[in-house]
Structures are given as C-alpha cells and as structure tokens.
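$ fold --in a.seq
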Amino acid sequence: MKELYYIDTHVHLNDEKLLVHLSEVISDALNNNVKKMFVVGWDLESSKLAIELAHKYEFCYAIIGFHPCNIKGYTDVEYNWLDEHLSDKKVVALGEIGYDFHWDTTTKEEQDVAFIKQLDLAVKHKLPVSIHSRDAHQITFDVLSAYCEKLVGGVLHSYSGSTELAKEYVKRGFILGISGPLTFKNAKVNKEVVKEIDLKYLVSETDSPYLTPHPYRGLENGPKYIPLIVKEIAILKDVDESVVEEQIINNVKRVFGV
C-alpha cells in the first residue's frame, strides 16, 4: 500500500514555542509523512527566520509578509526589505496579510495601508497570497474581489467564514486553508464548508503551534497532526484519504508552484 504524502501549507516553525525543540517538531512531522512545510512569517523578524529555515531544510518553503496586528510603525524600510526578498527562490507566497479586528493593536486605516501595499507587491512579483481574516470577513472579501483579476491566486488561511462566502472566493480563484478547528465536534460551519466546496479548492494546514486538532486540543500543535485534518476532510467528503492527499498535492502545485 502506497504511503500517504502530506503537506502543511501554513506552519510557524519560526515561532519561539516550536524553535526551542525544532528538531523534534520536524522529526515528528516527517515520521507522520508530512513531507512539505510552508513556514509563514508575521513580521520582519519572523519572515527573515522563515527564509532561513526554508534554505536550511529542503522540504521547507517560506511565506513572508506582515500580519495586520504587527505593522505598527512599519516604514518603507520594512516594505523595501519585503520587496527585495520576495524574489528568493524558496519564497512561494506573500503572507500572512489581511485584516484582524479582534486584537486592538492597529487601526483599520493602518491595516488598509499595509494590506494594499502587500497586495501590490504580490501582483508585482506574481506570487499568491496567504490571507488572515479575523472578525473582518466582509472587508477582506471586498478588497480581494477588487484584486482578484490582478493576483495569481491565494489561500484564505484557516478559513472560518460562511459556505456562501467560500463559494464566492473559489469563483474568484482563491483556495481555502483547512486547519484543526475542522475536527472540533461543534465546528458545524467549518464542516459544512468542506462538504460543499470541491476538493480542488482545499489545502491542509496546522497554523502550529496554534489551533491544535481534536483529540489534542489545548496542547501545542505541530505539523505532525496534518493527517488528522486530512482524515476529517476525507470523512466529510466520503472518500478515501488518498484521494484527499493526492488532490491537495495537485492544489499546492497549482497555487504555489511546488
């Protein structure tokens, strides 16, 4: 029987919680057949680390960018650095970027500026985007709708919106990142989204060290748990896990080019 091949399209190996035992995190992932990991930045320093890790480990790739909660005080210096490093051969996307109105660390106006600047850079470099949207579904959709014809695509990281909105996103060429909350018993909306959206528009991610899937909820998350997410997708789709795994591999190739 063929071994399954998993991909974590959104992991923070550059987070201090994982960095302190990184060799164990990576070993556990590989032992669970997680063969590719996309290390995502959220500010300047974490983006630098994402690139370092992507060059250190052949199976890692970097997604670099500035999270809406972390752009306070950023100037042309930071955005010029981002512009320069988006051409790195191991950088596969720009992110995670978007809107977050849950944490009161930056204003809507500051988030508007940061999002547009980074979307313009994604267009310039012909890179997909990794989108963060918390308590901001409508404004995120409106901005991305205005950009969808210029962008080469992107993923709605840890998608938590409605099924109706998900259908509109895939019409515009975006895909959905499916993470640990899908496995929660009370995750009715997440489960409905996966049932209703074609597998061609889904990818697996952990957001480690956060959003740990059931039955390990409350513990530190790691890419080793990707198989739990893929299994839940397969159950909801009523197909074999190998069907989900193969389609995710194809989706990653199509959107991220790896």
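$ fold --in b.seq
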Amino acid sequence: MAGFRTHRPVLLITAVFSRYPDAFEWARECCERHWGPVALASERFAFVETPYYEKTMGPGLEKMFLAFRELVDPARLPAFKHQSNDWEEQCAREHAWPEPRPLNLDPGYVTEAKLILASTKDRDHRIYLSDGVFAEQTLHYHRGQWQPREWTYPNYRRADYHQFFDRCRAYLRERYADEPSR
C-alpha cells in the first residue's frame, strides 16, 4: 500500500470581476489585508464572452487576476471561497452602486499541472470539497501550454489569460526551486 503524502503548497489566485475601478482597488486591498501581498497581477481584460452577468453586475465588465506571494495548502480553498463571498457582500453594502453584485471574486489555485477554481455550484465535473464548496479543474498544462476541458468557460480559453497563468506557473516553479529539498 502506498503511503500518504501532503500536497505541496500551491499558488493562490483570485479573479476580480467588476465594472467599477474602485471595486478592483477595494478587492485588492481586502485580499492583501487577509491573504498577503500580491506577487503577480494581470491587466484588466474586457469580459465580452457572455451577457449572463449583466443582469446582476451591469454592462462593461472587466476581469483581472491576482496571484499571492505566499504559497498555500490547497485544502484551504473552501475557506478562501467563503471569505471571498463575504467580501462581495461587504463591498455591495459599503458602496452605493446600483447593481446587486458590483463585485465578483473567484478564488482558485495554480499548480505546475493545473488551474483549479472554487465554486458554490455543483456540476457533473466538479468535486465536492467541504462547506458547500466545489473544485473545478478549469485548465490543465500539457505539452507546454494551457489546455481547456470540455466544460471550460469561454473566457478561460483565451490566450491572454493563458499568458498570465504562464507567469503564475513560472513564479510557482521559481518558489519550488527555492525550497529546501523535501
């Protein structure tokens, strides 16, 4: 029988999604206050793949990604999702924006082999973790590039997103190289 091993720490990321520049700043400050300094930040990408979120978030949406300096235990993903959902509600309460959901935060993590995102929605391809949170392998790294799965949302298929995730993967590999041998 094989022995159990703990998972290497992973690179915590979050997608920040809004139409308000102030919401992006508020989210970054909140995340850094609780999750530590940002190591990498993407540009803001226009979100044009679907009008689905406009009903609750308004038009002209943008998405950016933050990756945090401290590597984390992947088992903490449900706690990160609960925190980010609380922050979305806090942001809506503290600002006078007309939409019911002016900010969307989607935490996840990057490993050398995959991008995992947390969700509160169950689907056939998602794995239940705990506390109402599921994990989705959104992308996997194969033959030198990020590959989507059949369920991967269209925006996560974008080359500009993949370029940012390449930077995340390279940062993670540098961090691993700096670790003492395990």
